[in-house]
């Protein structure tokens, strides 16, 4: 059975979305490949995990890019990230960087490398602190959603989005 690497990674993401451990054997079973077939695509368990993180980030950046104006600034990129995190329903696959404790640093570094251009607005002083606060709101929201810890109603989520945008763009928080 010929399976693309992208299809293989979708099988891996589905395993994570169900909250199951991601192993080469589990991906082989889910994809219909043999374990050597999976290894052919990803090289190793570490290669699998890095590829899955990349795949999840690619899914995120597709949505993030769609939220940007054509003349986007770093502030627009941060605003898109915050809006994405506060308006998307996530699942355990979005916690891919945490899926293997032995690879925590490698996966964290990969996540940071690929998303860093979305996470920082190049300002200083109080406005930078406000923008960092908005990002931390967003990070908490997507983490809770991915972990299945829903703490906000839709109305509250909309209000938090409004507050986050005020933090980013310097408006008075009301």
UniProtKB/TrEMBL annotation:
Classification via Gene3D superfamilies: Tetracycline Repressor, domain 2 (1.10.357.10)
Q: Name one GO molecular function term.
A: DNA-binding transcription factor activity
For this protein, the record's Pfam families field holds: TetR_C_28
UniProt keyword annotations, A-Z: DNA-binding
Q: Has the keyword DNA-binding been applied to this entry?
A: yes
Question: What does the record give as the DNA-binding region?
Answer: 23-42
Q: Does the keyword Metal-binding apply?
A: no
Ranges of residues in domain HTH tetR-type? 2-60
Q: What is this protein called?
A: TetR family transcriptional regulator
What organism is recorded for this protein? Answer: Dietzia timorensis
